[in-house]
Amino acid sequence: MLRLSITGLALVAAAVTAGCNLDVSNPNAPDANRAFGDPAGLQQLLGGAFRSWVEARSGYYVMPLDAQADNYTASWNNAAIRYYSSVGSDCPARCGWNNSPTASDAGLVIESQWYGYYTVWFAATHVLAAMKDGLCFDDDCSPTNGFKRTTPGSDSTTTVRNRAIAQMLQGMAFAGIALMYDSGFVVDENTVLPASPADYPPFNSRVEMRAAALQKLQAAYATAGITTWKTESEWMGVDAGTAYTNVQIQKLIRTMEAELIAMWPRNSTENVAADWASVVSYASQGVSSGTPVTWQFYIDISARDAGIEYVKSWGNSILTERVDTRVAALITTNHVNPWPAGGNPCPTISPDKRVGDGSYGPANSSDFGTVAATANAGTDYACSGIAIFPAARGQYHQSNLQHIRYHPLAGVGEGLPADNGTGQNPFYTPQMNDLLWAEALIRSNGDRNLAATLINNSRVTRGGLAAVSGSDADTVLLTALHYEQEIEFMGQGATPYFNRRRVDGLSLGTPRQMPVPAKELSLLLRSTYTFGGPSKPDMVAPVGGAGDNWSRPTVVDRWHEVQQARARDAFLGRLRL
To answer: Any residues with CB less than 8 A from the CB of 361 and at least 6 apart, and which?
Structure first.
């Protein structure tokens, strides 16, 4: 029986009965007793967990990571973007993580994914704990028998489905921690923990976190194959969420497994040593296999601008963020890196149909510095003649290239006239899976012709570029692959950061992973540490500092503090100078 009391990692039972506020899917928000006491409430927890995962993966405090990857760029200090992405401003090169319980946005960047992913874990684990005690979700499970099955052998489709989804969510939570942090806790519905934080076990290493994530995802894959079912459509967003079949969920799980192995390495040495054969196996069964599927979450009016999705929202808001000149110089022939005095020119010149001539929208816009779309307009990028960032912050932040692929999700007033910030938010696409699969084939000496075909699926079909061939050298294939990854991974949470990290592409001083948040360490009476910057190592946790005796908020308490800090920032003013 799980004792839910990992201080900031899990909820103590007393906090649950006191009525702590959980993120649950709109529009139904059950009270604590209903959430944990009956199937309907527990099923809503699963919907809430998906919503929490979206914010943990692509929320406000994730934005600095893409700026650190020189993928998107901005010099505003919202979410500490300027602090963490500037070079030679607050620190001699890039700043390391400011892992302090009193740091404002700089500290919340470290906390956000930790508490977000463990909130996902919390919801999934409560569902599995209830199932372990015999609760079921089918028609034969009624309040009169404590929601236990009355007739042995009766239909169990909904129970099987919910078990598979809860197992998958556990795996998604552990994967998020494994990708971002140097360590975490592997705990589930079978874990019993001591009462005192001083007696808690050591953290699990990132290697162990990855193994646990793969184990949970594999269990979910097996459970999903037991019988035929569909997810609740509202789990994937209010009003217009997509219902997925069990087969489609199995494909999603395989892509998640492939992504975890491929994006987990912290440097090029670990990247070479990755289990690329397993990536081939997983990706070959992923969302681009057979009938392709895109896994998406609908951003409704309550979740839009200043809601749960920020990476795509700000990244496609033309007066908020821009495409870094590192990427602009890669995908055009007339933009240079770093940004030159006087700016990069419009129109853009590129053979790539995703870039085109940089024209955009139904009419010229003096506010955006764009010209009306021509027949050569790109699908993913536009050119803006306006430099939007304060010059004193460093002209290297400037760029004249804008991401528009997800313009319906842009901040209200910064997309096209018909956009309102709502729409489908794709997280796992066939193109992403193809590129994971192709890289794994190349790095494992697999089928080179298939690898070339997978690269061409986006390179030729979306980009209109010349095809690569299986007879091309590895350097040619990998160059084409990396080009495609820059485009197809853009806007996908912290994936651009992971992708640059594993090939040693981050600027000097940029930390390669996050420490356990200082507040968590204080609650556990353990020493604080950090990574990156001019004096801290990228990969080894130094010993230093001392744990303070803080009060004991729960993971959900702390998650709401993080959300409220973000919400206050959005209310007081969008852009911080």
So the answer is: 368, 370, 372, 373, 382, 416, 417
Q: In whole angstroms, what is the distance from residue 196 CA to residue 7 CA?
A: 9
DSSP alpha helix (H) spans, 69-186: 81-85, 105-132, 157-180
Question: Which two structure tokens, joined as six digits, stand for 2?
Answer: 């799980």
Q: Name the residue among 303, 491, 334, 327 with its Cα closest to residue 404.
A: 491
Residue 209 has which token pair?
Answer: 């976190």
Structure tokens at 241: 């969420």
**CB half-sphere exposure, 220, CA atoms < 13 A:** 29
327 inside domain: no
**Other residues' Cβ atoms within 10 Å of the Cβ of residue 18:** 11
DSSP 516: P
- Its domain, for residue 193, covers 13-307+511-572
DSSP H/E element including 285: none
Both structure tokens of 406: 């997800």
- Degrees to nearest 5, angle at CA 297 with 292 and 303: 165
Name the pTM for this structure.
Answer: 0.90
Q: Report yes or no on 354 lying in a domain.
A: no
Residue with tokens 């061939």: 469
**Number of structural domains, the chain?**
1
Structure tokens at 568: 């206050």
Mean pLDDT, the chain cut into blocks of 10 residues (577 residues total): 39 30 42 70 97 98 98 97 95 94 93 98 97 92 82 86 99 99 97 85 97 99 98 96 99 99 98 99 99 98 90 96 99 98 97 99 95 98 97 95 98 93 98 99 98 99 99 98 99 99 96 96 93 79 38 54 57 44
389 is a domain residue: no
CATH code for the domain in which residue 32 is found: 1.25.40.390
- Which residues are CB-contacts of 409 (< 8 A; sequence separation ≥ 6)? 299, 304, 309, 312, 313, 316, 415, 421, 422, 423, 425
Contact residues for 24 (Cβ-Cβ < 8 A; gap 6+): 30, 35, 44, 45, 47, 48, 51
Q: What share of the chain is helix, strand, coil (3-state, %, to 5)?
A: 45, 5, 50
- Determine how β-strand 381-383 pairs with β-strand 401-403: antiparallel
Q: Looking at residue 22, what is its pLDDT?
A: 40
Query: d(Cα 552, Cα 549) in Å, to the nearest integer?
Result: 9
Tell me which residue has tokens 């360490």: 521
On whether residue 501 sits in a domain, the answer given is: no
Count of CB atoms situated within 10 Å of the CB of 219: 17
Neighbours of 190 (CB within 10 A): 11
Residue in 404, 381, 406 with CA at minimum distance from that of residue 299: 406
Query: What phi, psi does 323 have (nearest 5°)?
Result: -80, 125
